[in-house]
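pls ignore typos typing on phone
flavin-adenine dinucleotide + seq
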Amino acid sequence: MAVTESPAKGRRRFWLLDLYGSAVGKKWAMALSGIGLLGFVVAHMIGNLHMYEGAAEMNEYGEYLRIIGGPILPHTVFLWLIRLPLLAAFLIHIHAAYALTITNNHATIDKYKQPREWLAASYASRTMRWSGVIVLLFVAWHLADLTLGWVNPDFISGEPFHNTVVSLSNVGIAALYIVANIALGMHIFHGAWSLFQSIGVNNPRFNRWRRWFAQALATVIVIGNISFPVMILTGVVG
Amino acid sequence: MVLELDAKIPEGDLDTLWEKHKFDMKLVNPNNKRKFDIIVVGTGLAGASAAASLAELGYKVKAFTYHDSPRRAHSIAAQGGINAAKNYHGDGDSVFRLFYDTVKGGDYRSREENVYRLAEVSLNIIDQATAQGVPFAREYGGKLDNRSFGGAQVSRTFYARGQTGQQLLLGAYQSLARVVGLGQVEMHTRTEMLDVVVKDGRAVGIVTRNLITGEIESHSAHAVVLATGGYSNVYYLSTNAMACNATAIWRAHRRGAAFANPCYTQIHPTCIPSAEEFQSKLTLMSESLRNDGRIWVSKKAGDDRKANEIPESERDYYLERRYPAFGNLVPRDVASRNAEAMINEGKGVGPLKNGVYLDFADSIKRLGIDTIRERYGNLFEMYERITDENPYEVPMRIYPAPHYTMGGLWVDYHLMTNIPGLYAIGEANFSDHGANRLGASALMQGLADGYFVLPYTIGDYLAGMLGDPVVPTDDAAFTEVESEVTGRTNHWLSINGTRSADYFHRELGKIMIAHCGMSRNEAGLKQALIEIPALYEEFKKDVKVLGSAETFNQSLENVQRVDDYFQLAELMCLDALNREESCGGHYREESQTEDGEALRNDDDFAYVAAWEWTGDPGKAELTKEPLDFKNVKLSQRSYK
Amino acid sequence: MDLTLQVWRQAGPNAPGRLVDYPVKDISPDMSFLEMLDIVNEGLNAQGIEPIAFDHDCREGICGMCGLMINGLAHGPQLGTATCQLHMRKFKDGDTIVIEPWKAAGFPIVRDLAVDRSTFDRIIEAGGFITVPTGSASDANLTLVPKEVADWSMDAAACIGCGACVAACPNSAAQLFTAAKIAHLSLLPQGQPERWTRVEAMVDKMEEFFGSCTNHGECETACPKEISIDFIALMNKDYMKAKFKNRRLVSQTG
Ligand SMILES: Cc1cc2nc3c(=O)[nH]c(=O)nc-3n(C[C@H](O)[C@H](O)[C@H](O)COP(=O)(O)OP(=O)(O)OC[C@H]3O[C@@H](n4cnc5c(N)ncnc54)[C@H](O)[C@@H]3O)c2cc1C
Ligand code: HEM
Ligand code: SF4
Ligand code: FES
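k done
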């Protein structure tokens, strides 16, 4: 009697949900949301370079972001069209990170007594969860400080140049800003390499560029972002 | 009691025999197959392929292995390749030629009919394995590549880098895993079979020990298949994996199964010599090295110079000198024996003077280092890892090591032992290789037995049992064996002597290699037959095994295997003593030509020696199954 | 040479375990690591202490039975080498060597240094095969396989199932093993019909026992067969496609 069987499982759920149900799928979600976040981080950094053009230009840029698409789109609608997916990406990224961390904690209950020697894992790759959390806390504070002004007593709505300079003139806040961006840089250092692996974009022809790409991206963003507090503290800008 | 050995060889022409016989055998109706339970012990190439095929046919299969996964069986270590008469290269190969070469290579000590069938089904093996996804080496056009192996005159060896055995086993294992996943095979890993249960003359089940919990359990079935591999480890140092053992076949032998040709062992010439007393095994390096390496020793005994300090004129390329036609490519037994002779003359090389040189300097000069690296790079790396010497610069050192056992349980044309319902396949049986196995033919035989022979022949036996229930495991036949096994197991823990089982195993190995190794003589074998029982007595009184029988206890596993080896070793020596001729891997010094080559004696010894258990391995009883050659002409091997 | 070993001893699956110190003397640098352990065991046996249990069999780096965490490195300090092929010359006189079993929830400890890796078998049983009942194959040369493809498939197929990739992974993920097994079959033409069910079934089964990959790459450096993490990328890609594809149409899209 020949054995016949039908291994194909019926699709129970919408395929994306099915995919997200697995750890491999969650990594896809992390990578794709990570790409979105990377895009934002890059754009955010480049946009902020307006700081170097002066207060007027910076404020104008801030306002410009709110009126893009006008008059077809009402005020700030475009901005929200960016903000909402970004928020979604952030939430997905964090949910997946959280869920995978739980999975991994279950899988590794038994720990080695001896210290491990790492040959491939970098400091950045081993601290993704920490750097991620630092970035999250920083983002929350950053929004409260410069977008909403809750923690910024001198906050003036519509004047990002002023708000930024006031905030970053404080050495403590500037230090926080710098530390958080180094964490972000480390996160990107591993993340921008790793994401190709997670979504299977893997071709011997360009594999060797991946490390280079991640390094360059992390460096540019860290230098770009850190330049603001440094320039403000040294009085070059402000 | 005199054994009745009926090989059940059908009458007829060789080339239609198997086809016709398949038609003549009784069949089990597809719907009835699930009413039969079959036990398969061993999941190497033979066992895994058999278990998978039987389950696919619809039988209910229980498979057993002492490994933690079927994929670990020793078949995984085979490097060189697998033969098949595909004639993909149009170089004149054919089923008949493979058959002929195998009978001749086995020095005319195997059954023509079995070997012909083996050659026939070799074709199907390659098809099956390829379809399973075995990544055999390919040519640029996408077709399968072949190489010539072990001095064969045609290219018929299929290979997957240096890991052919691994890939073939993975293929069989994956097929097995599929049916395990479907629930058609009940897989018992880390479970060692310790005895066969025979009731009313039929094999009805086995008794096993769960190696993790120590539980002794009975399993019953309509038929029992042993695919438990070879016993080269009787020599302690061999190329086999550490756990390879004879327990399954030995226990079957003690229950009445005849043991055939126990003394036929193959000693492989290209292994890395041992480096110290605690050496635990010997590593084989592919025979293909002899294609480009030249074997030599110094002409002077006791020469302490380094290899490169010995000038060309003082080197003895002894194989090229003695066998100008074949040179370094003489068959395994000839190469091994000559190496042993050189070492006995005091010409051995290396720190322990226990090797001969295999030198690539000339080939590197002729072909360039890149070609050599491409051909043997991974072997050279392995050699360097083990010896810390770089074979691109200094010659390799090699020495022969026990490698394969042609002997095993006696089986008929159906692969059934003389106990009805008990089958033996793969290296565990004696069937197809005669007195010497050709390179790349063991994988072929294991898979032939498992995929393409046993699944047919077993039906012929089972068909007659339709409707018979299996013997329940609370039957006295089972409970008696169970308590015997439990008693035996606990006994070892109670001796509390002073030396480990390994110690005795090492000592046994030394006796065996000295007296029943590459060359044998009457005095030595008689000496061994005195030394082995004496050491065995000491072992039984003085072995020390700690721990309990209820846990994972590797010393306990080991001591039982060594126990069985002691008994088997005696039988091997007895068989070697009885066979007063030189044939294949069995070289009796008394039987040689004027220039020291092996001399066969077809008039008196063209038979299979089948031994029956009498209660004392040294007093086993011999039954002879005469061998009749109708299709090949017997000739004396000559490699001059 | 003389060494101090710190070896993980654990009487059974649920027993507590700890590191125990054993001094060893007169070890030859030509010994393999496991032969060194054999000697330690002979000594323990003579002293009436139960020998250290550890898995091993072929001792030539192919069966995948052996595997120890040695001084923080799976299979020890020599890259591309299984524990059984590691030799003592890689250590120095006076060294302290810490030896632990693989530790991962998917590999419960059996005793001392031996672990249960049968979860790997479960992954294969889920789909790591090509369905081809015995006797149903057509001539082997009917399906042509480009040499490069066969070679790459072989690179993946070289996996010995030792579990070092899991052991070395900070997340105890079995991605490298599973990906190698998938790639071996899915790269070949013979493996195409079941390609999408295979990757889905095997990944899902893997995730029942093991952690998730964070792309550290430790597995690749621990692997005695130096299997590339490129196969993991392939697996991730195929897994997503498997979820998405309309399998009735696969023959049209490849
Ligand atoms: C280093 C080396 C290289 C080789 N190279 C080649 C080559 O290139 N070409 C070639 O054709 N041949 C080669 N051979 C020979 C060939 O590999 C073997 O003869 C063949 O693989 C044996 O297969 P098998 O299935 O009979 O046994 P094995 O593969 O040895 O399997 C035995 C099985 O039985 C199980 N078992 C044994 N006893 C028990 C028990 N009591 N209870 C439960 N389970 C048990 C084991 O767990 C295992 O699963 C080589 C052999 C060696 C040692
Ligand atoms: C702007 C902010 C962020 C960017 C640009 C970013 C980017 C990335 C990228 C590209 C990856 C790699 C994904 C992959 O390997 O496939 C990644 C991984 C990760 N991120 Fe973020 N991330 C950000 C914020 C966060 C936050 C807020 C958290 C946590 C609270 C976080 C936690 C993680 C973790 C834990 C990983 C590793 C997950 C894994 O590999 O399994 N990230 N991130
Ligand atoms: S991928 Fe490498 S490390 Fe993992 S099981 Fe296979 S051989 Fe071992
Ligand atoms: S013992 Fe077989 S791989 Fe190490």
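Chain C has two domains: 3-110, 118-253. Chain C has a mean pLDDT of 96. more later
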